[in-house]
TrEMBL record, chain B:
Keywords: Cell membrane, Membrane, Transmembrane, Transmembrane helix, Transport. It is a multi-pass membrane protein. This is Spermidine/putrescine ABC transporter permease PotC. Residues 62-251 form the ABC transmembrane type-1 domain. It comes from Paenibacillus borealis. Belongs to the binding-protein-dependent transport system permease family. CysTW subfamily. The keyword S-adenosyl-L-methionine does not apply. Gene3D superfamilies: MetI-like. It is found in: Cell membrane. It comes from the Bacteria. The chain crosses the membrane at residues 12-32, 58-87, 99-125, 131-154, 175-198, 233-254. Pfam families: BPD_transp_1.
């Protein structure tokens, strides 16, 4: 009686899990088994392994890796320097602030900045390089994506660096380690968890971006996300779209498991 | 030597901040351009602001967006309170972790997949795409984040408090409303606030589940931006930026007064920094 009364009010939450977490995944898997005419088939999976989709997948991965790498390269030093500033919480807030502005607006801004008569091309003109086609290229796609993701990379790294025990750094220096060695052997390994969650926060969304590719990269760059959007909303081929989604889910799950186990590994090493 | 090093590092930070804010100020600057383009500033004008204010369709969309955001965050926060209590209640470590993982699925999933799978769900369930589908999906993706904001407060709470209340004869409802809820109130507020910003910001999921005729701000901006440059978007973004700043500053001071350590603002976002 007592336990019944207790669990009664938990229903909305479990209902949410069943309806919006478990059911959607099952539905995607289910739909991936149907072709355009509604026949049960594995054709979608066969299609996925044709060069068209394989190329798209590699392309998508390549861009996601580039985006993650550049975000990390920019964010790590920035996070490090932020922890050394005086009012670091305030500065951090200023890093977070742009993330609260609609992503589409920021992306839209780059249409102007990278445009034929935009400021970047003006600078190029002054430098004598001449006008370049920047918009609708892979470069602009990577740049804008990195721009969007930078704060999400800085935040976890900042937290990790902020928790770092500075006496360890001092100890390394006292023992004669150079600045670079201290960074490589002490600071970086101790903040790797932040780096990892930063990379996770960037890599997976980067695989599935579609609005930036549409607005900034024209249709030059096709990622898994663009493909899903295309299949669902343009060609109405939900089966194939679901198949791509299934692969994206599998990739994501693999990443989660991998990062989870390696985290455990680190803990054991200690 | 040292000051030189400082100079370089300061320069780096200044550069990062400059790049981070340049597009935003770029948008704002050209919202005043009478030339009608995002290059070559011709003269100052407020025409585009007038356009935004007089655009009834846009006003309706803004109201839609706000209604969806407030309503969905309120509902999501309620479900999240229940969820946090549910997770807290479970003793078995394994079951707890499973529930937590299920909770986090929607946070780590790419938006495209959430959008596509919800589209299938609503179509199968026979829910017409529009207000209801958008509201439901915003509730759905806001719940887990609110749970994550509330849960730590619940875990920090000493169990002796509820025990004491029970010993003193409080009913279950009294324990919940007079002991637990007041203690986790800061978590509930930040959960609601996070849900609000998620909802206001969301594009990808909404894009999938809005039918014809119903639109939120993000979806509207996307379709306008695809048609090319229009400075009313700039004017609109300036207004949104100012509104955002007000919101952030308000939240910052509210938070500051409530809990001493200011660290709390940054942490949750860092934990789940998945852009939408």
């Amino acid at each position: 009686m007592k336990s019944k009364g207790r669990s009664y009010f938990l229903i909305p939450y479990y209902l949410w899990i069943a309806l919006f977490v478990i059911a959607p995944v099952l539905l995607v898997v289910y739909y991936s088994l149907f072709d355009l005419d509604g026949h049960l088939t594995l054709d979608n999976y066969v299609n996925f392994f044709t060069p068209v989709y394989m190329k798209m997948m590699l392309n998508s991965f390549w861009y996601a890796i580039l985006i993650t790498l550049f975000s990390l390269l920019v964010a790590y030093p920035a996070a490090y320097l932020l922890t050394r500033t005086k009012h670091k919480q305030l500065w951090l807030l200023l890093i977070i602030l742009p993330t609260w502005i609609n992503l589409l607006l920021k992306t839209y801004a780059f249409i102007g900045i990278f445009g034929t008569f935009g400021p970047v091309n003006n600078v190029f003109d002054l430098l004598g390089i001449g006008e370049q086609q920047i918009l609708f290229t892979g470069f602009s796609f990577v740049f804008v994506s990195v721009y969007i993701f930078i704060p999400f990379m800085i935040l976890p790294i900042f937290s990790a660096l902020d928790e770092l025990n500075l006496s360890l750094v001092d100890a390394a220096r006292d023992l004669g380690a150079s600045g670079w060695t201290t960074f490589r052997r002490v600071i970086f390994p101790l903040t790797i968890s932040g780096v990892r969650s930063g990379c996770m926060a960037v890599f997976i969304p980067a695989l599935s971006l579609f609005m930036i590719t549409r607005l900034i990269a024209g249709n030059r760059v096709i990622t898994l996300g663009t493909a899903i959007e295309q299949h669902f909303l343009v060609t109405q081929d939900w089966g194939m779209g679901s198949t791509v989604a299934v692969f994206l889910i599998v990739i994501m799950a693999l990443f989660m498991i991998l990062s989870g186990s390696s985290r455990k590994g680190v803990r054991h090493e200690k | 030597m040292r000051s030189n090093k400082n100079g370089i590092s300061n320069l780096y930070l200044v550069l990062v901040f400059a790049v981070l804010y340049a597009p935003i100020f770029y948008l704002m600057y050209y919202s005043f351009n009478s030339g009608g383009t995002m290059h070559g500033f011709e003269g100052f004008t407020l025409d585009y602001y007038r356009e935004v204010v007089q655009d009834t369709r846009l006003m309706i969309i803004m109201i839609n967006t706000l209604v969806i955001a407030l309503l969905s965050s309120a509902i999501a926060t309620l479900i999240a309170i229940i969820g946090a209590l549910a997770i807290q209640r479970i003793r078995s470590r394994r079951a707890k972790n499973t529930l937590l993982s299920l909770n986090n699925v929607l946070i780590v999933s790419p938006d495209v997949i959430i959008g596509a799978s919800f589209l299938i769900l609503f179509t199968i369930a026979g829910i017409k795409l529009g207000f209801v589908s958008v509201l439901l999906s915003h509730v759905a993706f806001s719940v887990p984040i609110a749970v994550l904001m509330i849960l730590p407060h619940l875990q920090d709470m000493s169990p002796t408090l509820t025990d004491a209340a029970r010993d003193l004869g409080a009913s279950r409802r009294d324990v919940l409303t007079k002991v637990i809820l007041p203690i986790i109130k800061p978590g509930i507020f930040s959960g609601f606030f996070m849900a609000l910003t998620y909802s206001l910001d969301d594009f990808a999921v909404t894009f999938f589940v809005t039918g014809n005729g119903y639109s939120t701000l993000s979806v509207e901006i996307y379709s306008r931006a695809r048609q090319g440059v229009s400075l009313s978007i700039n004017a609109l973004s300036t207004l949104i930026f100012l509104f955002t700043i007000l919101l952030v500053v308000g939240y910052y001071f509210l938070n500051r007064r409530k809990q001493r350590p200011a660290v709390h603002i940054a942490e949750p976002a860092a934990e789940v920094g998945v852009p939408r």
